[in-house]
Amino acid sequence: MVTNILTHHCNPQRTGTNTLETTLAINNVHSSSFGKLWEYPVRGRIYAQPLFVTLVDAPRDLPQHLVFVATAENLVYAFDADSPAPNPVWAYDAGADIVAYAGRVYMEDNGQGHGQDITPVIGIIGTPVIDLAHFTMYLVAKTQPKSDVDPDHDEFYDTLHAIDIRTGKSRGTVQISGHIEGGGLFNARRENQRAALALVNDRVYIAWAGYGDIDPYDGLVMSYGTADSGQPLKKIDHFQVARFKPLAGGRHKKGGIWQSGGGPAIDDRGTFLYIVTGNGDSSNDHAGSDFDSSTVKLDLNLHPVDYFTPSFQNYLNEHDLDMSVSGPMIPDDQLDSDGRPVKLLCHGSKTGELFLFNRDNMGKFHDDSNDIVQQLRVFPDADDLDHQMAPSHIHTTPIYWRAPDGPRIYVASDFNLGVRAFRFVHEKLDPHPVARNFFPRAPITQMTLSSAASRPGSGVLWFISSPTGTVASYPGILYAFNAENLEMLFCSEDNPFDRLGDYPRFTAPIVANGKVYAPTFSNKLVVYGLKQ
Q1: In 3-state terms, what secondary structure has residue 488?
Q2: Does the residue 249 lie in any domain?
Q3: Could you tell me if residue 7 is inside a domain?
Q4: Exposure letters 347-378 (e unless 16+ CB within 10 A, then b)
Q5: Strand partners, 312
Q6: Which residues contact 532 (CB under 8 A, 6 or more apart)?
């Protein structure tokens, strides 16, 4: 079996698990035998998850294994994944000289500035996706060229790029555009392409949210034809989260889809996409017409076919407790007590709850109840903690693993409450964790798990955290945990040589062929593995 990581969280279902890892295991991921091997220098902070490709019939002038890194400076690099050589196989420039400046993006029209969650520049932020059948990577880059008409006026563009992963040559670009229902045009300055891209058949799906809730912005999903489709790089469909038009003539906005960098989840048949939306302007009265603070099932033409809006949607909207801090994930079907398979979907939330759905009946909206499979409070110990239930925020896209003792889901706290694993009992999760680790660090945002299928002793849970803060310029630490009992195996701070670099917020490492590729905000991708 060959390893390919072509999209965020390992696969289109976003399980976050590479089950083909036969080298790294519980018995050898320790500081005495495992550590930093080398670093690949890049220019820019790495917000996007790295990707990995095995070229089965690689030409002689190409390595068999390539690791890809996209940076906020609008640069993409391909490195020989098995070599410490610092020079890339190729590098692609998606507009590095005209990359957008965060100070201009995080500024209202009246000149008032905002805190910058992404800084100092905003180029390629969402994780790209690779169409391996056609050796093509797709990504979105934000640029800020000077206006030819008014040199003092900045223009902003989001551009979809297609790149040949073998050569780094462009296969075409197209500027993102579109009309917003209820008035206006797509505004790249206000639309944050943070969520990972998705690929289904011959279409690329791209989602947007906002920057620091600066108005006006819209939660959007668009689809474009792939470079090898009958409609190459042409816009095909468009979904707008909030579109209800009140009698007064206004309309609702917001409902951003950012998912802490997670991407739309796609079922294994490639028939539906699932997204999670943030807080918006609408209310319970508009459920089913507007979809802010909701979980939405879309067909491939981006028509909503089902949804879930919680009964407390108004409260979520009023208190910035958006659902879209966690990406959706599709685990294996589980059997109910009568032996019938249930098609599941799950994600976390800012309230610290894990929502579990039947994909054939998402639950829609009910005034006084939530008609879903399960609503599990993962961190009840956060009830008396800070404002907005901050310690219980679940920014992680949940991890799914068929562990030796049965299927599990892993989630983590964004602040100080650690990692917890829950086992399935039929189609629901046992509310009592099967494993847990109180982890006094902040935060844990995205994770990955490597294993040799369900082999005992092979499961390792990986993530990057920080002991001192939640944003840029704090030290990042790579951790490895025994996935069966959540005991710590490795910490990159134990040996000064193994130190990672600045903490990459909302970004996880990837694991492939015995190596861990860890992103940083320190202009480098760090590679860990077994010491020689």
Answers
A1: strand
A2: yes
A3: no
A4: bbbbbbbbbbbbbeebbebeeeebebbbebeb
A5: none
A6: none
First to last CA, the chain: 24
Domain assignment of residue 274, given as a range: 17-530
Contact between residue 233 and residue 204 where contact means Cβ atoms under 8 Å apart: no
Pairing of strands 515-518, 488-491: unpaired
Q: How far apart (Å, rounded) are the C-alpha atoms in residues 293 and 252?
A: 13
CATH of the domain at 299: 2.140.10.10
Dump strand ranges (E) for 352-418: 353-358, 374-377, 399-403, 406-412
* Amino acid identity at 336: D
Provide CB contacts within 8 A for 474, sequence distance 6+: 466, 467, 468, 502, 503
**Interstrand relation of 235-240 and 447-450 (parallel, antiparallel or unpaired):** unpaired
User: pLDDT by residue for the chain (532 residues), tens digit each?
Assistant: 899 999 999 999 999 999 999 999 999 999 999 999 999 999 999 999 999 999 998 788 899 999 999 999 999 999 999 999 999 999 999 999 999 999 999 988 888 888 888 999 999 999 999 999 999 999 999 999 976 656 567 799 999 999 999 999 999 999 999 998 877 899 999 999 999 999 999 999 999 999 988 888 999 999 999 999 999 999 999 999 987 665 545 667 889 999 999 999 999 999 999 999 998 877 777 777 789 889 999 999 999 999 999 887 777 777 777 888 899 999 999 999 999 999 999 999 988 889 999 999 999 988 888 999 999 998 876 554 444 445 578 889 999 999 999 999 999 987 667 899 999 999 999 999 999 987 655 667 799 999 999 999 999 999 998 876 555 568 899 999 999 999 999 999 999 999 999 999 899 999 999 999 999 999 999 999 999 8
Tell whether 2 is covered by a domain.
Answer: no
- Residue 205 domain-assigned (yes or no): yes
